[in-house]
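Researcher: Last one for today. Full complex below.
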Amino acid sequence: MTLSKFDGIELPASADFHVHLRDGDMMELVVPTIRQGGVNTVYVMPNLVPPITTVEHALSYKTRLQSLEPNVTYLMSLYLHPSITPETIISAKAAGIVGVKSYPAGVTTNSDSGVLDYASFYPVFAEMEKQDMILNLHGECPSHGDITVMSAEERFLPTLLDLHKRFPKLRIVVEHLSTAAAVETVLKCGPTVVGTITAHHLSLIVDNALGDPFCFCKPVAKLVEDRNALLKAATSGNKKFFFGSDSAPHPRGAKRGGDKIAAGVFTQPYATQYVLDAFETGVESGVLREEDVTREVLENFLGRFGREFYGDVARQRGEGKGQVIRLSKGKGKVAEIVQSEKTDVVPFRKGEVTWELEFIS
Ligand code: NCD
Ligand code: ZN
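Model: Here's the assembly. Have a good evening.
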């Protein structure tokens, strides 16, 4: 059986470098699922309503997250917005905020106050470069003219190259890579430019997203060759590629029955498990060879490379609670729904068999 060599494997807890934890009822529901997915370190996205544009908001949000689940390290970010100045960057750095996320205006959930023109942020980027803060890019152009959701990422790549050229020391994470073209461009850039890959983009193609609102996210899943390029990048052993789930919970009603389908796939409770499943399917379909998927590949992609890139703030702390996970093949099952009295969310691949995961120390 494919990847049965990993049945019972013990691994360092995963780090997930792209999560949406929301606020209020949904936050209370999803934060306790972080560790169920084998994760003990998360990089938290700032696209709340209103977005997190001040140090105070980021820190009070962090306190709320910590009180719900103290056994997770939360790395916080700000939302790139006209109100952010070089002075904000200096105080954010001093307060331990790790990075700034840029959303192009209007491309995805809660991006109404996103970026229209990168040039106006050059002084902010220059200060971020100086302070060694990370720029997280949602790498898509808004659909307009001949740009569609299928070409939105590829059409953004010249902007990435331009930013990298102007700010070569600025550490940039291109989030949720979804195309072979983006993988190639990240490879072409210097060591300051890396990319995260989600579990669902390792699994899906556009046909899945079109037929199922629970597989619809931004960037949308693309073509078979794109998905295969992501599988190869994630198992390549190249430090430039590491895991960020982009788990993006929306209440069930926002996925079915609303006027518009909300973009976002909820993967938090099975984050690590889904990655193993995706690699397994990759081997079964002949895209990967079984020997390509080693323990080292898992450890690197699921934690080590991201922790190294993010640096001291993200390093796995020595021995202690929440450091080691064990995975058992075929013994887990994805819930039909995750719910509280106040809200609910449908997980990716509901009802399907997956790996069972437990923290063992
Ligand atoms: C995210 C969300 O719901 O906040 N949605 C998504 O489709 N990925 C926003 C984002 O990361 O684009
Ligand atoms: Zn996201």
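Residues 99 and 308 are 15 Å apart (CA to CA). The chain has eleven helices and 14 strands.
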